[in-house]
Amino acid sequence: MITVRGLTKRFGSTTVLDGIDLDIGEGERIVVIGPSGTGKSTLLRCLNFLDHPNAGIIRVGDLEVNSASATKAQILALRRKTAFVFQNYALFANRTARQNITEALTVVQKLPRAEAEARADAILRETGLADKADAYPAALSGGQQQRVGIGRAMALNAELMLFDEPTSSLDPEWVGEVLELMRRVAARRQTMLIVTHEMQFAREIADRVIFMDGGRFVEQGPPDQIFQSPQDARTRDFLRRVSTDAT
Q1: pLDDT band at 246 (very low <50, low <70, confident <90, very high)
Q2: What gap in Å lies between CA 148 and CA 124, rounded to an integer?
Q3: What is the pTM (predicted TM-score) of this model?
Q4: Distance (Å, whole) CA 161 – CA 205
Q5: Are 179 and 200 in contact (CB under 8 A)?
Q6: How is residue 50 annotated by DSSP?
Q7: How many CB atoms lie within 10 A of CB 168?
Q8: Tens digits of residue pLDDT in 144-197
């Protein structure tokens, strides 16, 4: 369904992504773990050209985008096939929860407003926020804001949902409700690529876990393999440190 070849991103003289290759099957849920500053978020941002890669080819379904020759129309088409959940929610402060969801539906997908609002209301019910439809972000908790952000991505019916550390900005009391919503999204066999530091969640939800370090994929496999018998010393060291930090 999704193929990435040679994805490379440099900031000045620093190579953040070093020729990444990735294949994602329809309905597959992949979790990317690794140290901070190793390129995980940049990977997601390059997959829908929030950051323009220096090199690489991305294929989603029948769409192929080469970073060396990507046009604005191709980038827009790619973004229509993906939906991004940001770590800092990225909601419009001057729009209600319902309006935050309908914005992309009317502007990007060109849905009639009535249809967009009906879809937004259905999503708000599914995310447990029906009573917050007319609330502005400032009146919502961090967990509620992130659930609106996830609802906005769900409403797009995208072929790939990208989650960039969706719980990292949350107070601990709100993490559980966001992870539970993500579990419900995953249960629908939505194709998902998730960057997270929530190791237990990764073990529960992932079909495949990728350990990333230094802008490269070091090791990948089923959760049991990665968490119980990692093959690479860097993976073992990372998981040992994460386990120590958690205790």
Answers
A1: low
A2: 8
A3: 0.93
A4: 14
A5: no
A6: S
A7: 15
A8: 999 999 999 999 999 999 999 999 989 989 999 999 999 999 998 999 999 999
- Share of residues in the chain with pLDDT > 90 (%): 91
pLDDT digits (tens, 9 = 90+) for 9-34: 999 999 999 999 999 999 999 999 99
CA distance 211 to 217: 6
Residue 232 has pLDDT above 80, yes or no: yes
Within a 10 A sphere around the Cβ of 26, how many other Cβ atoms? 12
pLDDT, position 236: 96
Question: What is the C-alpha to C-alpha distance for residues 185 and 188, in angstroms, rounded to an integer?
Answer: 5
Is residue 30 classed exposed, middle or buried when 0-12, 13-18 and 19+ CB atoms within 10 A define those classes? buried
Q: Which two tokens stand for residue 168?
A: 């990292």
Residues 123-153 as b/e (b if ≥16 CB within 10 A, e otherwise) read: bbebbebeebbebbbeebebbbbbbbbbbbb
Sign, CA dihedral 218-220-226-230, equals negative
Which whole number is the average pLDDT over 219-230?
Answer: 96
Q: Is residue 78 within 8 Å of residue 107, measured between CB atoms?
A: no
Average the pLDDT over 188-210 and give the result.
Answer: 95
Helix (H) / strand (E) element for 184: namely helix 172-187
* Residues 215-220: contacts with CB under 8 Å, at least 24 apart: 215/15, 215/16, 215/17, 215/18, 215/20, 215/38, 215/39, 216/18, 216/19, 216/20, 217/20, 217/21, 217/22, 218/34
d(CA 117, CA 28): 29
